[in-house]
Amino acid sequence: MKLLRLYILYRLYFALGLVVAGVLSHLYADVILAWILYILAFVSVLLHYMIGTMRLVKDAVEAGNVDLATTYIQKIKRPNWLIKPVRSAYYMLQSTMSMATNDLSTAEDNIRKSLKTKSTLAGDMEGTNLMQLGFIQMRQGKIKEGRANLLAAIQAGIPDKESLAGVYLQLCSIEMQRQQFKVGKAYFKKAKALNPKSKEIVEQIKLLEKSISRLPG
To answer: Is residue 212 classed as helix, strand or coil in its secondary structure?
Structure first.
């Protein structure tokens, strides 16, 4: 893993070394070996600009190390050169990190860029993007827009039940505020039926369950 990390971080230097080795091989050794080295150098340059450091960013995010993830993602200088699925993930992670620092306008801008990057190569991320946009708008106080995007996220498809349960609970709260108690209860039942396991979602269900049974409708 350490060697992979070093390769990802220093691909261009690695490519330069391969070119130098290829030239030397071309001049003093085997021409076929030289072309192999040239091809490897070309592939390394392509990987640098088309994938960047996103593998390291993903690993850092999964480890909960936001500072390290930020360091790695800042090494990507030309995000528009990334291939579409990687570009979409890049903007989504940028949005997530902006949310963590409560920079909601930047978070919204980046998630919209992710939405514009249409790609199904690594799975359709539209539902996840719409969900994140909806949550951002809820935190901004844009209730109407947030509700619309959360509903659109459900329709587009949310891949994991924990996230889907969170969306249903958010919609439940919105409908309760609108005094649409019957609709709110329906969303609550849908969230509970998913049997989510994450601590945050379970706590939200417990808090709502204490009061929702007393509501009319």
So the answer is: helix
In angstroms, the CA 193 to CA 195 distance is 5
The Cα–Cα gap between 192 and 173 comes to 14
Q: What is the mean pLDDT of each run of 10 residues along the chain (217 residues)?
A: 87 94 89 93 95 90 85 92 91 90 92 82 75 95 94 91 93 89 89 89 84 69
- pTM of the model as a whole: 0.83
Q: What is the 3-state secondary structure (H, E, C) of 91-146?
A: HHHHHHHHHHCCCHHHHHHHHHHHHHCCCCCCCCCHHHHHHHHHHHHHHCCCHHHH
- The SS3 call for residue 207 is helix
Alpha-carbon distance of 195 to 202, in angstroms, equals: 9
Query: 54, 55, 99: which is closest to 81 by C-alpha?
Result: 54
